[in-house]
Design brief:
The complex is a heterodimer of chains A (330) and B (330). Chain A is α/β, with parallel strands linked by helices and 330 residues long. Chain A is built from ten helices and 13 strands. The radius of gyration of chain A is 22 Å and the shape is globular. The two termini of chain A are 28 Å apart. Chain B has 330 residues and is an alpha/beta fold. In chain B, helix 1 packs across helix 6. Chain B is globular and about 65 Å long. Classes of the chains: A alpha/beta (330), B alpha/beta (330). Chains A and B meet through helix 3 and strand 8 of A and helix 12 and helix 13 of B.
Chain lengths: 330, 330
């Protein structure tokens, strides 16, 4: 069995897959600003769901906090989220030509031709249309995020909302509310404008060809889905595990890497007490923030220093320690 | 001994060997700027011209660092470094910006350099500076010729320095050039962009080091023949009159046509007018040739660029290059 962990900016996704990349168990959690706790909770949920004893043969980590996840649990493969997402889709839909992925704070487009990724783009200057903004607006309108997209489908008169910037989008929404527009129409308008923003900013200049797969947390939003279809004039395919694709890709990459011996620290990491410590190094002008991950009173990982002064020393001493353990056993 | 300060910014990343060798030959002490600390940009109480690119802002910070350490700041007015074409117009204003920012605390040596004028523009330029320092023609001539040899040697070595030294040592002339290393089975990736985008860690976040870490051998425009570049660019429908822009477009076109290059990365300054145009143009060039796919990535750089964001994009890009290479091999 393989473990795939995708730690994004807003949510953490953990999947357990078998040798055929089938999802046995999965967890989708909000980080709530505590990614370490979220990863641990995710593993706990997986253990509970799987029921049967789990033996992990490999672990893959992805997402913006992939390195943290890897340090925490011990990962065999650490991969950027673009490759991980593409890997997950290719088996699900081998002929896919375009992947639209919208997550909590990231949005990206991945272009594939003949089963190979040939181009991609990620949002740079603007996070309009990503999950956290939709979250905020749903909360402001007093609608649960789960119902948000469905409400858009009930609109009969889509309102035009300024979508170039989220702040102005919000201003415009408030204005439209004050003018007395229906909430459904405003939500539908917001979906339209956010899709336009995505197409103008992220996928600008890219050739969007069918089949188009839409994934990431925002793919749950029916309103955005419909707006994308209207705007592109193409059918949008949402895979069954649309919100777990990064984690599935990571698990798949771990399986393909076939580690002879996994670096996974064991399922008990879910119960360890982790803490972090950081200090500013004054060794040179870079003044790096050096981070240490501490478990059971011991530093278990160290990173953040550009020159490797601390992390290299730590890795060396750890490797020597492991060698010593091994020779003792031998 | 007269102390000449050379700010480690902008065209330092092309002409430092020439400039420093010249001043040293004339018996000056050369002091290189070294502003330290996180956010040294923000700390300076200078009214920045907000529409300026990051490298230009860094120039101001570097000069401020030098002001109290030197007698003279060397900030030449670079009008042209090409027989026919010109530099970005902002370079003409640099000495004035620096005079304003330093408030006359140090003498600014701002002799104009225009490669389009006369038979021997470097000779005329070096004579003007040498005379200002009180030397006679004969000594100046010897120093300027010696400096040219240093520069020529450096340019010849640059590819090896880029591939063999840490980024901070590429322009550290005390570090000898390592022997050529060409590990087999590697990816060959071309990095194009203004030299200060490539080599200034504060701008480009050491993309060179990141790419090398990912197993890439780096190709750069400096290793191409200037004549070849000019010839290539002259086939375009419109004349490009910035020398740096010509170099970037020409290099991109040459690398694109080469079988031994697996990918091209363009490092652009977010607020650079030249780059904004080049970027659109390059996108079209690379898109038009989609069949002979050579992956192309634009990384946009400014003070908000994070190392993590760059690393994610570069990692995904290198994955694409590797897939492409494998596909070609089949």
């Amino acid at each position: 069995m393989y473990l795939g962990i995708d730690v994004g900016s807003i949510t953490t996704k953990v999947v357990l897959t078998d040798a055929e990349d089938r999802v046995i168990a999965h967890a989708y959690l909000r980080n709530g600003g505590k990614p370490i706790a979220a990863i641990q909770q995710g593993i706990k949920n997986i253990i509970q769901q799987a029921g049967n004893p789990i033996s992990i043969e490999g672990v893959g980590a992805t997402g913006s906090a992939r390195h943290l996840a890897a340090y925490l649990v011990g990962a065999d493969v650490v991969k950027n989220e673009i490759t991980a997402h593409a890997v997950a889709v290719i088996d699900y839909m081998p002929d896919v030509k375009t992947i639209i992925e919208i997550g909590g704070q990231d949005s990206k487009i991945i272009i594939l031709r003949e089963h190979v990724v040939v181009d991609f783009a990620m949002n740079t200057v603007c996070a309009a249309g990503t999950g956290s903004f939709l979250d905020q607006q749903a909360a402001r309108l007093g609608i649960s995020i789960e119902d948000f997209g469905g409400r858009a489908l009930r609109s009969h008169n889509r309102v035009r909302i300024a979508g170039r910037c989220t702040v102005f989008a919000e201003t415009d929404m408030i204005h439209k509310q004050q003018l007395g527009y229906q909430t459904e129409d405003i939500i539908a308008g917001l979906c339209d404008s956010l899709v336009k923003n995505y197409l103008n900013n992220v996928s600008r200049g890219k050739e969007i060809l069918a089949p188009v797969v839409f994934q990431g947390g925002v793919a749950a939003n029916k309103g955005i889905r419909q707006a994308l279809e209207r705007e592109l004039g193409l059918e949008i395919i949402v895979p069954p595990h649309f919100d777990l694709m990064g984690a599935i890709g990571a698990a798949k990459l771990a399986r393909r890497a076939r580690p002879s011996e996994t670096l996974f620290k064991g399922l008990e990491v879910a119960n360890w007490h982790f803490s972090t410590r950081s200090f500013e190094c004054d060794g040179c002008g870079n003044t790096c923030d050096v981070m240490e991950l501490i478990a059971k009173g011991e530093t278990v990982a160290c990173w953040g220093d550009t020159c490797g002064k601390y992390s290299d020393a730590f890795n060396r001493s750890r490797d020597e320690g492991q060698d010593a353990v091994r020779s003792n056993h031998g | 001994m007269r102390r000449i300060g050379i700010p480690k910014a902008l065209m330092y990343y092309r002409f430092f060997p020439l400039w420093s060798a010249f001043f040293r030959e004339l018996g000056c002490e050369v002091v290189i700027s070294d502003p330290v600390g996180k956010g040294f940009l923000g700390r300076q109480s200078v009214a920045y011209f907000e529409d300026s690119c990051l490298p230009m802002k860094l120039m101001v910070a570097h000069c401020l660092d030098l002001v109290e350490k030197v007698d003279t700041l060397f900030v030449p007015r670079l009008i042209s470094i090409h027989r026919k074409y010109i530099m970005c117009p902002k370079f003409r204003g640099v000495p004035d910006i620096i005079k304003l920012a330093t408030g006359g605390q140090a003498e600014v040596m701002d002799e104009p350099f225009d490669f389009r004028l006369g038979n021997d523009p470097w000779g005329a330029f070096s004579r003007a500076i040498g005379q200002r320092l009180g030397w006679r023609s004969r000594e100046i001539l010897a120093a300027s010729r010696g400096a040219l040899r240093v520069q020529a040697k450096f340019e010849k070595d640059l590819v090896r320095r880029v591939n063999g030294l840490a980024i901070r040592d590429i322009f550290n002339l005390e570090r000898p050039t390592p022997e050529a290393t060409s590990p087999a089975g590697n990816l060959d990736v071309a990095l194009i962009g203004h030299p200060y985008n490539l080599y200034d860690v504060d701008v480009g976040k050491d993309v060179i080091g990141m790419a090398r870490e990912l197993g890439c051998r780096i190709a750069i425009a400096d290793s191409l023949d200037g004549y070849e570049i000019d010839k290539k660019v002259s086939t375009l429908s419109k004349e490009i009159y910035w020398s740096s822009g010509r170099e970037i477009i020409g290099a991109a076109l040459i690398f694109l046509a080469r079988d031994d290059i697996n990918g091209v990365v363009f490092l652009s300054s977010f607020k650079c007018g030249i780059d904004a145009l080049l970027q659109e143009y390059l996108k079209r060039v690379f898109k038009g040739q989609r069949e002979s796919i050579i992956p192309f990535l634009t990384l946009s750089l400014d003070e908000h660029t994070t190392v993590q964001g760059m690393a994610t994009r570069l990692e995904a890009f290198v994955d694409i290059c590797r897939d492409g290479k494998r596909k070609d091999a089949r």
